[in-house]
Amino acid sequence: MSEQMPAKSLYERLGGVYSIATVVDDFIDRIMVDPRLNSNPLVDEAHHRVSPAGFKYLVTEMSCWAIGGPQQYSGRSMYDAHAHLKITREEWAAFMEDLDATFDKFNVPQPERAEFIAIIESTKPDIVLPTAS
Ligand code: HEM
Predict the structure, then answer these.
(1) Is the Cβ atom of 47 under 6 angstroms away from ligand 1?
(2) Is 82 annotated as belonging to a binding site?
(3) Cα separation of 96 and 80, whole Å?
(4) Best mutation site among 34, 40, 49, 82 for ligand 1 pocket (most ligand atoms within 8 Å of CB)
(5) Is this complex scored with an ipTM above 0.85?
(6) What are the chain's domains?
(7) Distance (Å, rounded) from C-alpha 109 to C-alpha 112?
């Protein structure tokens, strides 16, 4: 790439909000019914309490914000949104498998996938707490 051409943000490379919202839509539909996640009664309760549309809105907004889009994330911090759910490492692994399945479905290219996953992984210490084993 020449020096004059600034690198495109991950947000731009993924196709902006219309593409990202489509990916989030598929992903949230997947995780909300995943028995490996809903076997945690706290997650199951929350998955049935929050509206899918609102959940998708917040996850889309956060995703866009985290990867260089113009959006401002207006939701809670990752710690505040998840500490009460006592999410385990096994549940985290299931969540990441669901994410892979969604990326496969939309043929998200490997470099973009890896960048996105690195951002998600950076939130793990706030979501999977040591007390949850
Ligand atoms: C095993 C992993 C995860 C599970 C089971 C999970 C589940 C949930 C549930 C059930 C809620 C609703 C909580 C409530 O209102 O009581 C929630 C909120 C949320 N989650 Fe997750 N989550 C996981 C990981 C992540 C990750 C990695 C991200 C993004 C990096 C994320 C982003 C969000 C956002 C943006 C909200 C909404 C926050 C708000 O209401 O203000 N989650 N999650």
Answers:
(1) yes
(2) yes
(3) 20
(4) 82
(5) yes
(6) 14-132 (1.10.490.10)
(7) 6
